[in-house]
Amino acid sequence: MEIVTGLTTTVSKLLQFSGLLMKNDVPGTKNMEEKALEVYDVIRTIRDPEKPNTLEELDVVSEKCVEVQDLGDDEYLIIIKFSPTVPHCSLATLIGLCLQVKLQRSLPFKHKLEIYISEGTHTTEEDINKQINDKERVAAAMENPNLREIVEQCVTEPDD
Q: Model pTM?
């Protein structure tokens, strides 16, 4: 079955590249778009650590910043590329941590998560990208009671 899936994916990519098949016609694309919307629905309500607004309201996240790829065996790779409000945002790492925590808690399906700052939107994006995708650093950060309290305030839904 794995060989057939791989072959189908390869053929779809070749047809798409040749222009004989549009991206929206690729098998599974609609499901990935639905998964991406499901992910976006989870992250859009995260509140900014400094402001009373959500990340969606501040355009830190949008529907187009979420990509979902099928890894097989009902597992998905979720890639988030967020844009801090200013290039020197001191809370970009904290926003990335909030995204990590909320998605790990909320998604009902098996997934791997990669979170990045959109290219060119922050002065230290490479360093921050390493920090927010390092599981040990994320775990250590969540052990800090002050940091954990801030994250909880940001990820808790208003209705909770």
A: 0.79
Tens of pLDDT, residue by residue over 8-18, are 556 555 555 66
In angstroms and rounded to an integer, the radius of gyration of the C-alpha atoms of the chain is 17
Q: What is the average pLDDT value for the chain, to the nearest integer?
A: 86
Mapped onto helix, strand or coil, the DSSP state of residue 144 is coil
Taking CB atoms within 8 Å and a gap of at least 24, the contacts of 30-38 are 31/70, 32/68, 32/69, 32/70, 32/76, 33/68, 35/68, 35/76, 35/78, 35/109, 36/63, 36/66, 36/67, 36/68, 37/63, 37/66, 38/107
Find the largest Cα–Cα distance for the chain: 55
Indicate if the alpha-carbon torsion angle 55, 93, 115, 124 is positive or negative.
Answer: positive
How many helices (H) and strands (E) the chain has is answered by 6, 3
Mean pLDDT, range 86-102, rounded to an integer? 94
